[in-house]
Write a structure and sequence with these properties.
By secondary structure, the protein is an alpha/beta fold. It has 3 domains: 7-312, Alpha-Beta Barrel (TIM Barrel); 337-517, Rossmann fold, CATH 3.40.50.1700; 580-701, Immunoglobulin-like, CATH 2.60.40. 25% of the residues lie in helices and 21% in strands. Strands 11, 12, 13, 14, 15, 16 and 17 form a 7-stranded mixed β-sheet that branches. The longest helix is centred in the first third of the chain and has 17 residues, at 95-111.
Length: 702
């Protein structure tokens, strides 16, 4: 008979004793659970929670969506700080900001009574059309892991669990729940698994979320190669594996296959982990209770690390919508903006401007709505739109007009939104009333990919019409993925990529446009001239895939993003790592701490002097690329292996030191199923983008 405990007895059970090690507490709780109670803990309860075990006083492990803030739909419709999109954070190339963002979101998770953040997403950008590109860090695994590691550490510093996702190769929304990614071993590990591996080993996330898609014919939630063999056995992952919501509904998955593969928690409810099916699998001998115990042990360890086993009164209370969080949101938006083109019109000078026209479909657009863009949607207590930010900055010094022909400068806010129907139409002036269709937007959204690289034709026409009225037109892009610009780029003097900038976007944009902030962002993803230049778009077979066989073929192999453009000498519209500034920088005196590397664990330092040669404060992102001259396998012409963000006053010089690991120079060897570096010479390239190299030297591996 199950023992019924009083509240006083529960308080004195060993598992509630915080002085004991977590492992001892978990084992005590595990042995007290009945088989049926264990089974209840294998699947979700009320969408975003684990089931409570009232008999033992075990509360729910409560989760929330939110790569850039606590999502409204998973927090009881709560309003929270809406931070910029992950792509904006990635464009800042700022590790410290990534950590601060993780800490801030975790504080808001706590304030909402949750224990786990279902973020960050660390999938690689394979196609610019992916509807969730705005949620991810970029196309390069080194950059992704360098920002994801501090983000996860920041989250978990607050006793909140981070759940990295979507494991793995979830790189398109088209048929994401049924498509099989056909991929070779080297590409899988070197490009798509690498960031996951580094984050697991360096940041020790409490949880990993599986992908919807299949990888080489096996779904992510019962893929023994990915989960048990790779995550558990090879990488030593000690956390829990949670399914993406509804990822286990397919007939191919079974109770046995999921448990044996290592799936710890099925969400949002039991499909394969129904008690009836679990009892049947146990009685038939398909599974043993040890498998259930292993899964539950992982769930309970996460519950313990996040305070579910403790008295709630002893846990951090958290804070949300604080001035500090709102300031951080604005700073990330400012640092993430990328100046793509500037023929001297920016920064705008208030003392030389009498009137400004602020126009475009995104000029007054608010993005904080429930499920707007998918599971990442955050509703903030307020949201500063671009026109509100410009009005606030200009105050009464500049007149805002509607007709471009009457303005000294036109600010044209274009781009995308999260609408799947092409966007709500808004009208800004009598000048455009005759062309109401000019204000449509495309979309970035979970659940669907974009239909084209270019802006909607109506927006292209709007840009051209505006420039005819006033050539002093600055285009500000609000979007989360690359855009084609060939039809209009040469017509305008300046383009600013502002991404989805969060609740303080309008203020941040105004600060950059008027020179209060010097733009320092660099692209974390290549902007191609045309869609067919992107490696995933060789044929329908490579994207969106063979729709009859439900397979998408990663035939480009390791040549993803700039690796592809460099290898095949294809000129992008804007290269990976690119971004202009209102000042200029020079690079001098490159040296290395040693001229040989002897192992993957070996580290060497690179030194270079960076000088701000302009007349204003600015920040430069120094990028280090490797070119392997003597390798036994095909290597890309350039691979990112290091970077640093340097802030400098006018005419200030700083000696910059960047550490580079042997591991970051390695490739994945399919014969040993491990990382390897061949003997020979490696060129070390130092530049301000993947295509703007200033200095180079060599190091030997032996």
């Amino acid at each position: 008979m199950d023992i019924i405990y009083s509240k006083q007895e529960i308080a004195h059970l060993p598992y509630r004793n915080s002085r004991l090690s977590l492992e001892k507490r978990v084992e005590d709780l595990l042995k007290r659970l009945t088989l049926d109670e264990k089974m209840r803990l294998l699947s979700g309860h009320r969408i975003f929670n684990t089931a409570p075990i009232n008999r033992l006083g075990l509360g729910r492990l409560r989760m929330t969506d939110g790569p850039f803030g606590v999502a409204m739909h998973s927090s009881g419709l709560s309003k929270n700080t809406r931070f910029p999109s992950t792509k904006a954070l990635a464009a800042s190339w700022n590790r410290d900001l990534a950590k601060k963002l993780g800490e801030a979101i975790a504080e808001e998770v706590r304030a909402n009574g949750r224990h786990m953040l279902l973020a960050p997403g660390i999938n690689i950008d394979r196609t610019p059309l992916n509807g969730r590109t705005f949620e991810y860090f970029g196309e390069d695994p080194y950059l992704v892991k360098e920002l994801a590691i501090p983000f996860v550490q920041g989250v978990q510093n607050q006793q909140v669990g981070a759940c990295i996702k979507h494991f793995v190769a979830n790189n398109q929304e088209t048929l994401r729940k049924t498509i099989s990614v056909e991929i070779d071993e080297r590409t899988l590990h070197e490009i798509y698994l690498r960031a996951f591996e580094e984050v697991v080993k360096e940041a020790e996330p409490f949880s990993v979320m599986t992908c919807y898609n299949k990888v080489n014919g096996v779904y992510g939630s019962d893929n023994s190669y990915l989960l048990r063999e790779t995550l558990f056995d090879k990488w030593g992952f000690e956390g829990m594996i949670v399914s993406d919501w509804g990822a286990t509904v397919h007939k191919e998955l079974t109770t046995k296959s999921c448990l044996k593969a290592g799936l710890s928690l099925e969400m949002p409810s039991g499909k394969k982990y129904k008690r009836k099916l679990l009892h049947k699998a146990l009685s038939s001998g398909e599974i043993k209770e040890d498998l259930i115990n292993d899964a539950i042990r992982r769930v309970l360890l996460v519950a313990g690390k996040t305070g579910v086993l403790d008295d709630p009164e002893t846990l951090p209370k958290g804070v949300k919508n604080s001035i500090e969080h709102q300031s951080l949101s604005r700073k990330i938006a400012e640092e993430g903006m990328v100046l793509l083109k500037n023929e001297g019109i920016l920064p705008l000078k208030l003392d030389s401007i009498n009137s400004i026209a602020v126009l475009g479909p995104n000029m007054n657009k608010k993005f904080g709505k429930i499920l707007y863009g998918g599971s990442s949607a955050v509703k903030a207590p307020y949201e500063v739109t671009p026109i509100e930010g410009v009005k606030e900055f200009c105050s009464k010094d500049v007149k805002l007009v509607h007709d471009p022909s009457e303005a000294d400068v036109v600010l044209l806010f274009m781009g995308l939104n999260h609408n799947k129907d092409g966007g709500r139409r808004e009208f800004v002036s009598d000048f455009f009333e005759k062309r109401k269709d000019a204000l449509e937007s495309g979309h970035d959204s979970e659940g669907a990919d974009r239909a084209q690289l270019e802006l909607p034709q109506s927006q292209v026409d709007l840009i051209k019409d505006t420039v005819k009225q006033n050539p002093n037109t600055v285009v500000i892009l609000i979007n989360g993925s690359p855009l084609g610009m060939n039809e209009w780029l040469n017509d305008v003097p300046a383009v600013l990529e502002a991404w989805y900038g969060g609740m303080e976007a309008g203020n941040a944009i105004a600060n950059v446009l008027f020179g209060e902030i010097n733009p320092s962002g660099k692209l974390p993803i290549t902007f191609p001239e045309q869609l067919t230049d992107s490696p995933a778009h060789k044929s329908p077979k490579t994207y969106p895939g063979d729709l009859d066989d439900l397979k998408v073929y990663y035939e480009e192999g390791i040549y993803v993003g700039y690796r592809h453009f460099e290898k095949f000498d294809i000129a992008p519209l804007f290269p990976f790592g690119f971004g202009l500034s209102y000042t200029t920088f020079s690079y001098d005196n490159l040296s290395l701490s040693k001229n040989k590397v002897h192992s993957l664990d070996d580290t060497f330092n690179l030194y270079v002097d960076i000088t701000n040669t302009g007349d204003r404060f600015g920040a430069e992102i120094v990028q280090i690329y490797a070119n392997h001259l003597e390798s036994n396998v095909d290597r890309p012409p350039k691979e990112l292996v290091g970077f640093a963000k340097v802030e400098l006053n006018s005419e200030e010089k700083q000696a910059v030191q960047i550490s580079i690991r042997g591991k970051d120079l390695a490739y994945y060897d399919v014969s040993t199923h491990d990382w390897k570096l061949d003997e020979g010479i490696i060129r070390i390239l130092v530049g301000s983008s993947s295509q703007d190299i200033h200095l180079e030297t060599e190091i030997h591996f032996s």
